[in-house]
């Protein structure tokens, strides 16, 4: 073990030295890659992540998450084997994108609302892209065709739902002997409706927290800023690393292997740049998918973009690892879930293409026939992203609450104490 650790340490050191040498060798390319990564962080990630990170910490401090956890427990527990508070994590993740799900799951662990296995399950299927990025940046900005947005969004979240169902079998033996605490553990014994139990859970959580609103807000902003700066640094770092690998031609072998694999699967080999780029960074891979050329059918471009969005790129993986490093939750289950998500989402694109796009859309849509409105250049608007994010957050929460209530009404005996 000690020898392997030393070898890993030496290899990482050598890799960093080579990276420093390449940065000196390609200063202009390094500068442009850094600016590009910084632009992505400032224009897209900061406005779409920061408000929701602050809001989620405030809601945790005021016990709203415990309130929702009690109401959503009848739905989330049997489906995904996570407490009801996982429904809140899923809703916020849908609204703001990665890595919000991992951040909230780590906070639930700190408050002892999830076990290690439950946290790993939760991170596995709540790490997803946000719809405003898939609609605005990918569909409009990269594909110049807003018509592909419903397919991308539907396949992405449907695949996340399937991953959640599959990951419910993770840690079965380990968690069977130690049931996790839930927000309603202390209130389930009380008489009254589930709504009364949820209100009691919220009150107990607020009393246990005890921080004044000013202190709670200060800590929420401080914690969110630390995370968003880490996210920005990782985006810039991987943007530079990817550009240096392109400049040195180091990705040539990987491109050739990917082209051979695509040819063997009877898929367009021109998608290799998108898939390889998406392994490192989401935005680059999605952009390459949209610009793969008119010779590639649009359905295969959308499938490649779905793969990239579901995998997340090494930049997102590094963000998740940095968040999980302060908890006992392991990176391995998350890596497995990302791989499964990346395989399921493109298949769903192929299956849903004709039902959503219509028979005339198979196998391709002529991009030259698009209207000027559909080919408009996408320019992110912070206000629009925040407004749309809150709309998605409210919609997902209402939908989850509806299904939770429906399950209680259909199976009332299962929830009687």
Describe the structure.
It is built from 18 helices and no strands. The radius of gyration is 22 Å and the shape is globular. By secondary structure, the chain is mainly alpha-helical. 75% of the residues lie in helices and 0% in strands.
Topology:
Layout: H1 2-25, H2 27-61, H3 64-80, H4 85-96, H5 100-110, H6 116-126, H7 131-142, H8 149-167, H9 172-176, H10 194-209, H11 213-248, H12 252-264, H13 272-280, H14 282-290, H15 298-311, H16 313-324, H17 331-357, H18 382-410
Core attributes:
18 helices, mainly alpha, globular, 75% helix, 417 residues
Using DSSP, what is the number of strands?
0
* Topology order in helix (H) and strand (E) letters: HHHHHHHHHHHHHHHHHH
The N- and C-terminal alpha carbons lie at a distance of 50 Å
Radius of gyration: 22 Å
The main sheet comes to: none
User: What class do helices, strands and sheet pairing give?
Assistant: mainly alpha
Percent of residues in helical segments?
over 70%
The oligomerization state is: single chain
Shape, per Cα inertia axes: globular
Strand content: under 5%
Q: Which ranges are low-confidence, i.e. pLDDT below 50, for 5 or more consecutive residues?
A: 174-179, 182-191, 364-378
List the total number of helices.
Answer: 18
Chain-averaged pLDDT = 82
